[in-house]
Structure formats: structure tokens, C-alpha cells
Write a structure and sequence with these properties.
single chain, 270 residues, alpha/beta, Rossmann fold, eight-stranded mixed sheet, 8 strands, globular
């Protein structure tokens, strides 16, 4: 039976449930502070500008094939092609769930080919990701790293969806033994996850706000081993990624997603 998650009653119950979770309180406080700034006329700082972020991404854009070649890899690899059974089974699990994820825009996957190519091609074995949703990137990473790898993931529950049992449902039980899922927002979950480091690949796809990114990127950078790759999704939302890359003095590689979106990565020297 399908669940109407767009109804006011459902969303009210979901929100109330999450507000009872102390781990979610910093998230709601940040949201309240942002709304208060807008109501008092402070608005959003210029450094949040999406137009400038899109231009920055475009200035460093490469095709996905060329992007992975900058890492010394021969070309792009598609996890759905190399592991069709795993992805077909995951598709069936998602389709059978009572929540209509596709209608909510939550059933899609990020830059899976780039993520998988980096993990598999560079033999990454210690990986951290922020943002899980249905777990498509988690599945690609676990398949790419092989049986001796370990993935740590941090995921904040969606405030408008009750519970979180569906989080990471793309990952089958036989791979879950190499996966640690921390079901907390970044503020609470990242300090816990970083204790598992250092990592040789980190993928960021959680808090999209400028402030959240600027808080997280330096923490992730310090937890990244020399020669490791830090990749961020949706870097064209605001200038947080551009500002961080300038802070560390590195030129990123950007791969276009859709019309204006970009994923991007940098490599830690050493």
C-alpha cells in the first residue's frame, strides 16, 4: 500500500517525530536562525551566489571521461554495467517500497560512474560519504572497493519523511557487513565518523547550505589521507566549494550534472 507523504497530516507527524530526536535539534536551530536572518532583512550573504558558483564550475568543467583521466585512470566505468544483478535487485526493492521515491525526486543517483571509477580504479579501501538517501552511491562504493574495504556513511533523516528504515535500502545484506551507517545529521554524525579515519576517498552530499559546507569541508580535508580524493556533489548551489578550494590552494575538476549542476573533486597533495 502506497503512502501519501505529501499530506499535511503525514508531514506533521513526521516532523514532530524528528523534533523529539535530540540529534536533530542543531539542524532545526540552524534552520530557525536562517529564517530569522531573512525576516530581519539580513538576507543571504553575497558569497552564497549560485550564478557565480555555476560560472566557477563551468570554468573547471571536464567530461567525466577526462575527469577520471586526470587521476591516471584509463577511462570511465559504469557500476550498473559491471554489476547489473546488484542494481536490478536494488531497483526492485525501491519500486516495492510504499513511499513513492521517484515522485519525491529521491530515487535518483549522483555521479555514480565517477564515484565508482575512482574507488575501483584507485583501489580505495577507506571511504567516507555524507548523505545516503536510498544508498545508490553507497552500493557503488561497496561494489568498487572489494571485500577488504570499509565504508562509513553519515545520513540525516529527511524532516518530512517519517522514520528512516528506507535509508540505504539499495545496499543488500551481504554487503552491509563492510558498511557503517551513522543515522545522524552532520553536526552530530561527522565527529563520530571521523574517528574511523583517515580516509582515502570522501564523497560529500549532505548539508547543501553554504554555512554547513564551510563547516564540513575543512573537517573532511583533515581526515583525508595524503593522495586521497575529496569529491562534493551539487557544488554549483553556492560558493562554498569555490571558497574552500581557494583556501587550500587547489584547482578542482568539475563534471556537469544536468543543465547547471556540477560535481567536483580535488586531490590532497602528498
Amino acid at each position: 500500500m502506497q503512502v501519501d507523504v505529501t499530506s499535511r497530516g503525514y508531514r506533521t507527524r513526521a516532523l514532530a517525530g524528528h523534533m523529539l530526536n535530540p540529534d536533530m535539534w542543531p539542524f532545526f536551530v540552524d534552520k530557525a536562525k536562517g529564517r530569522l536572518r531573512r525576516l530581519t532583512g539580513q538576507g543571504r550573504p553575497v558569497r552564497h551566489g549560485a550564478e557565480s558558483a555555476i560560472a566557477y564550475g563551468g570554468a573547471h568543467e571536464m567530461s567525466a571521461e577526462d575527469a577520471v583521466r586526470t587521476l591516471g585512470l584509463p577511462g570511465l566505468r559504469d557500476p550498473r554495467v559491471e554489476h547489473p544483478d546488484a542494481f536490478e535487485a536494488a531497483d526492485r526493492r525501491v519500486a516495492a517500497h510504499p513511499v513513492r521515491f521517484k515522485e519525491l525526486g529521491l530515487a535518483g543517483a549522483g555521479q555514480l560512474d565517477v564515484i565508482y571509477t575512482i574507488v575501483a580504479g584507485l583501489s580505495r579501501r577507506r571511504v567516507l560519504e555524507t548523505g545516503v538517501a536510498l544508498g545508490w552511491s553507497s552500493l557503488a562504493i561497496l561494489l568498487g572497493m572489494g571485500p577488504d574495504g570499509r565504508l562509513v556513511s553519515v545520513d540525516m533523516p529527511y524532516p518530512y519523511l517519517a522514520g528512516g528504515s528506507w535509508v540505504g535500502m539499495a545496499v543488500p545484506p551481504e554487503l552491509a557487513g563492510r558498511w557503517k551507517l551513522i543515522r545522524r545529521p552532520d553536526r552530530a554524525g561527522l565527529p563520530q565518523a571521523l574517528k574511523e579515519g583517515p580516509f582515502d576517498f570522501i564523497h560529500y552530499d549532505s548539508d547543501k547550505a553554504y554555512e554547513g559546507r564551510r563547516r564540513a569541508y575543512p573537517l573532511l580535508w583533515r581526515a583525508l589521507a595524503p593522495g586521497g580524493v575529496l569529491m562534493s556533489d551539487d557544488v554549483s548551489d553556492n560558493l562554498a566549494w569555490a571558497d574552500f578550494c581557494k583556501d587550500v590552494g587547489l584547482t578542482p575538476v568539475a563534471v556537469r550534472r544536468g543543465v547547471h549542476g556540477f560535481s567536483s573533486f580535488i586531490v590532497k597533495p602528498g
